[in-house]
Amino acid sequence: MTNMLEINSLTKTYGGNVILNGISLTMNQGESLGIIGESGSGKSTLSRVITGLDNIDEGEVVFQGISLDPKKGKSLKKLRRHVQIVFQDPSSSLNPKLPVWKSAIEPLENYTDAMPAYLQHVKHNKKSMAEVLFNKVGLSKDLLERYPHQLSGGQKQRVAIARGISLQPDLLICDEPTSSLDVSIQAQILNLLKELKRDLNMSYLFISHDLAAVQFMCDKIAVLKDGTILDMFRTEEIFSETRHEYTKKLVSIALQNAL
Ligand SMILES: Nc1ncnc2c1ncn2[C@@H]1O[C@H](COP(=O)(O)OP(=O)(O)O)[C@@H](O)[C@H]1O
Ligand SMILES: [Mg+2]
């Protein structure tokens, strides 16, 4: 069986600076991979090149057996349908001029033949589709007509998640999905994401600088520093003696913060 996602020796530069340096990793369908790294380590750049939002300099990204080449529109279109992304800041990812229900169903308008099974019974009514999606992410239908500025940060992120799951992607990339939220809301959003992953059988590429969150969400963890993967392991191996020194440092900081 081929891997769902395979990244081989990926290099990305900006203005001559190497931002991602020889990244290789694989993900199987249904598996979730966490990327942990400090600010500036290249996490968001990685998520952008995987989704084709940005081009790569060297190496390749292969999704479901098809190489992602930004010059070939067809593979990009397939990729976009099966890979969705939830960004850190829901305020900048929702259109301020649209009632939020329209943002939630936006991907469905671009891929009219990609309706997931759980929306089939309402497929003739866009607003009903939004209502089903809102229900899935724990939002009241009373909020459908609101504009982004009329929602809390947590509610806006739920709308962004509703949009992210609207095509039932095989892979949902979550780039620090709780970092902009109040601490009290973060756990609720993590729990929601975990529930949805099980319910919809999605894989996550879950990006964070919060080790506890990555541990909670993922089967495997990759440690990114200065654009290089220093360490990669199954989550249950996180305390192993064989971990990279840098990983051990992250673990000890996380343990101290938890006290
Ligand atoms: N569009 C860009 N142009 C130039 N440099 C960039 C661009 N995007 C990111 N960078 C640089 O790449 C590095 C990694 O950024 P980023 O991927 O956002 O890290 P992270 O998400 O881990 O905080 C940073 O040094 C950042 O300044
Ligand atoms: Mg980032």
Automatic annotation (TrEMBL):
Residues 5-251 form the ABC transporter domain. The keyword ATP-binding applies. Coiled coil: none annotated. One of its GO terms (biological process) is transmembrane transport. This is Peptide ABC transporter ATP-binding protein. CDD domains: ABC_NikE_OppD_transporters. Belongs to the ABC transporter superfamily. Keywords: ATP-binding, Nucleotide-binding, Transport. SMART domains: AAA (SM00382). GO terms for molecular function: ATP binding; ATP hydrolysis activity.
